[in-house]
Specification:
Radius of gyration: 21 Å
Number of strands: 5
Number of helices: 15
Distance between the termini: 34 Å
Organism: Phocaeicola vulgatus
Strand content: under 5%
Largest sheet: 3 strands, antiparallel
Structural class: mainly alpha
Low-confidence stretches: 14-18, 185-189
Protein name: O-antigen ligase domain-containing protein
Helix content: 55-70%
Mean pLDDT: 77
Keywords: Membrane, Transmembrane, Transmembrane helix
């Protein structure tokens, strides 16, 4: 899979970078795929622990900042990107300068949505064990990201995971959803608050779609349907470098499954699908199938299925879920 995605866009990268990338990905996958169940559980716990520690420290300084304490900072940019604005680097967390209403928590990561997405997957992999202090910390970080996409992943994942459990858990879910509905209604009436600004206002249905359905712009949708899907570029794509440097669209237009097809084509999409489906078939459990569905939901609006973090969480979850009895014994 790694070889394919680098090979079809070989003209965009240096030969040294090509072989370096493929070797690192191959080496990474070989190590992960040869882990024992004990090692898989241990690695997931290690990732969860240190990821939560990073988030906890970030949240402390983020809260101190919100309380009005002046912290030292510098201005940074992401690789001279025109897509992202400047960031205020407070060293323990960063803040985008466009978040004028309220600085959503994003820790040291590029977007609050990136943080929320990985938190949602880690919560599922840890089976929503909020009694674990590290898992609880990740849960809090997701909530403070105020990412609608992360909230959707959390809600869908939580509901799907506990739907397979006993009726008592379904009652708990119903009570939780009822409480959330009451809080949302209260926030909607108050209007000028962070929940209404970043979450509820994006759920308003107008002009034939949700106001929060802004993953692609009209210019990009037009380019996708008229230029890509009607030409041979729909097969292998135009490559990420060409997409980033030669194309410019108004609005967002930079995140959706459509972006993946533009960059890597339908063939690339099928290879990713075969990769995740292959692991699902080899280690099939109901839990892994539900995680697969969660990945599909995430991919539709944020196509980051090739991120090492997503692949690692998915493979570790496959090992652990397929050996659930051994996993329970280890805990």
């Amino acid at each position: 899979m790694s070889f394919y995605f680098e090979f079809i866009h070989f003209d965009e990268i240096a030969i040294g970078d090509f072989f370096s990338f493929v070797f690192k990905r191959f080496f990474f996958l070989v190590i992960v795929l040869t882990l024992s169940i004990q090692e898989a559980v241990g690695l997931l716990k290690l990732i969860t622990k240190y990821f939560s520690i990073i988030l906890f420290v970030s949240m402390l300084f983020w809260i101190v900042h919100l309380l009005g304490t002046k912290l030292p900072y510098s201005i940074i940019r992401f690789q001279d990107s025109v897509t992202y604005p400047e960031f205020y680097n407070y060293y323990f967390f960063i803040k985008a300068d466009y978040l004028t209403f309220f600085p959503r928590f994003q820790s040291i990561f590029l977007e609050p949505g990136h943080l929320g997405m990985i938190c949602a997957f880690l919560l599922f992999a840890n089976q929503y064990d909020l009694k674990d202090k590290y898992v609880l910390c990740i849960f809090c970080a997701l909530l403070l990201s105020f990412s609608l996409a992360a909230y959707v992943l959390l809600g869908c994942g939580w509901f799907l995971f506990y739907l397979k459990c006993e009726k008592r858990n379904i009652i708990y879910i119903f009570l939780l959803l009822s409480m959330i509905s009451v809080l949302c209604s209260y926030a909607w009436e108050k209007e000028d608050n962070v929940v209404n600004e970043y979450i509820l206002s994006r759920l308003v249905y107008e002009d034939g779609k949700l106001s929060g359905d802004n993953r692609t712009s009209e210019d990009f949708d037009d380019y996708f349907s008229k230029k890509i899907m009607t030409s041979s570029d729909c097969l292998i794509g135009i490559g990420p470098k060409t997409f980033q440097t030669k194309l410019s669209f108004s609005g967002s237009g930079n995140s959706s499954y459509k972006v993946f097809i533009v960059m890597d084509g339908i063939v690339g999409l099928l290879i990713v699908l075969f990769f995740y489906s292959g692991i699902l078939l080899k280690y099939y459990t109901r839990e892994l199938f539900l995680l697969f569905i969660l990945y599909v939901i995430s991919f539709i609006q944020r196509p980051y299925a090739l991120w090492d973090s997503q692949i690692l969480i998915y493979i570790l979850s496959a090992f652990i879920f397929s050996n659930e009895r051994k996993y329970k014994l280890l805990n």
